[in-house]
Amino acid sequence: MTTVPDALALPAFTAVCVTSEERNCGAASGTLHTSDELTRWIAEHRAQTGHQHYEQTVRAILRAEPGAWQ
């Protein structure tokens, strides 16, 4: 068996601001579908706040293809 990205499904990108002064900011991008959209959100948040540290999550839908385990 192998897994392959599902070409019909959009990827999902999210970011959370983890800049820590006294506590993490916690501002979140919500789900975006391109890395450019995510970069734009981070740039806008940084312009407003000066925050520099973000945690990124990338999700993709995978399809399991039959076959022998390699």
From TrEMBL:
Pfam families according to UniProt: DUF7848
InterPro entries named in the record: DUF7848
Superkingdom to which the source organism belongs: Bacteria
Domain DUF7848 positions: 11-69
UniProt protein name: DUF7848 domain-containing protein
